[in-house]
Each structure stands twice: as C-alpha cells, then as structure tokens.
Amino acid sequence: MVTHVPAEARGDERGALLAFIEAQRGGLRRTLLGLTEEQAASRPSASELSLSGLLKHVAECELIWLRLAQERPNEKQRDESTWHESFVLVGDETVAQMLAFWDAVAEETEEFVRAVPSLDDTFPLPPAPWFPKDGRVSMRWMLLHLIEEIGRHTGHADIIRESLDGRTAFELVALANA
User: Fold this and answer.
1) Which of 34, 80, 29 is nearest to 51 (CA)?
2) Cα 12 to Cα 178: distance, rounded to the nearest angstrom
C-alpha cells in the first residue's frame, strides 16, 4: 500500500476495519484520476477488465455485502444473464456517476457498521456452490472480506492504469495530493 492508514482510536476495531476499507477504495479511485471515459473503459491487456468496469464491480460488490448484512433486498441484484454488466458501464453510465454511487454505498456501509450492536452479529450467506449450506458470517468477516475484495481489484486496477499511461500508484497518490 502506498498510503498510510491512520491508527484507530484505542479499542475502535470498527474504525480500524473501516479505515482499511477506505484506504483500498482510495487506491481504486486514484487509478481513474485524469482519465477520459474512453481511457477508463479501455482494456489494454488480454483481460476483459477495465478501470471503469472494476469501479462499477467493487461498488456493486460492496452493496451486495451491505444488503446481505442488513438482510434487505438488493436493488442492484444481478443474475446469470446480467452478471457481465457488473464489469462494464452500460447505457449512459459514467465514471462520475459510479464514483457518486460508490460514495453513497460507502457512507451507508459506515453508518450501518457503526450502528450494528456487535461485530460478532451474523447474517446468512446466500445459496451458492462456493458457500456452505446454511452458512452464516459475522459483520467482522464481512468487513475483512470487503478489504480483501476491494484490495484484489485495486491491484488489477493498478496494473491496468500503468498499462494505459505508465502512471504508478505512487504517482497517482502524488497527483491526488497536489
């Protein structure tokens, strides 16, 4: 990681986990700095991944986990026929809109996590071949999973951005702080 994650207040586990999630979000957001919509949508390698597609995917992924934890319906629910659309901007979607959407999801995630009675509280996993039957996970597990998921895709984004114009994460941090 090329940025420092501030230390949490003593005993504030929620704050620590949320700070690491935000650090990963920032890494992905920075990969889009100074790019046009076309550059953000480009795929400079054999992969089908683009920066704008990764942005949309992680924003929707965070919403999925938030709605699961809240045990509420997901307004962006996808199925097999629309899953591919979670990795590409469609119609009139823009990077700015996806960033705003993600900001709203992030704010809701923070409010929810701060309000949940305990990080030990659990919620059911959805039926899927990769989850245990009748599996449950804790709020803590969800936060750790978001760190992992966003971090993984931020690494993809770093490679894509460097392939586009040679800018590294260090340069993008400097650009963001300029």
Assistant:
1) 29
2) 31
